[in-house]
Design brief:
- Helices cover about 60% and strands about 15% of the residues.
- With about 150 residues, it is an alpha+beta fold.
- It has a single domain (about 5-150), classed as Up-down Bundle (Butyryl-CoA Dehydrogenase, subunit A, domain 3).
- Helix 1 runs antiparallel to helix 4 (about 120-150), helix 2 (about 55-70) packs antiparallel against helix 3 (about 75-105) and helix 3 packs antiparallel against helix 4 (about 120-150).
- It starts with a helix and ends with a helix.
């Protein structure tokens, strides 16, 4: 239902993942050149160095799943399962991000300048999704107790 607190948690998680996919994840120096790492690619000195569309796809799916989950309010168990899958996708976002960072030749002098806000947002989205799962589970327990009282 749209008036429940878990809806707010899921929508905020969706916004966090949207921010993570469109803002810079990190910026660093690679062989003396400034590199900006975004979900769509690595940009060295403003030019596209390598494309990371898979990272963008994982982030976009993780941003869309909470919105889909909101409208499945009649099937709470399915909501919980989709939310757990979304948490695994967000962890996969971090793992793939780390893989791409460490895939760069480490002997080449990789020096981090700063971590972007996009790298922090999936953690917040994971926490919000976990809170939504807890509230959806509490609603399921409440509905089951009402069914037990009716019998």
């Amino acid at each position: 239902m749209l008036q429940r607190i878990q809806t707010l948690f899921l929508l905020l998680a969706s916004v966090c993942m949207l921010v993570a996919t469109v803002t810079p994840l990190a910026s660093f120096f690679y062989n003396g050149d400034p590199v900006v790492f975004e979900a769509m690619g690595m940009y060295r000195s403003g030019d596209l160095e390598s494309s990371t569309w898979a990272l963008f796809a994982i982030g976009a799916i993780s941003a869309l799943l909470p919105i889909v989950t909101v409208f499945l309010y009649k099937t709470r168990i399915l909501q919980i399962r989709i939310s757990i899958f979304n948490i695994f996708l967000m962890v996969g976002f971090y793992l793939y991000f780390g893989f791409l960072i460490f895939n760069i030749n480490p002997e080449a002098g990789l020096q981090f300048q700063k971590i972007g806000i996009g790298a922090i947002m999936p953690v917040i989205a994971i926490i919000l999704t976990y809170l939504a799962i807890r509230r959806i589970g509490a609603d399921e327990i409440l509905v089951r107790s009402f069914h037990r009282l009716r019998k």
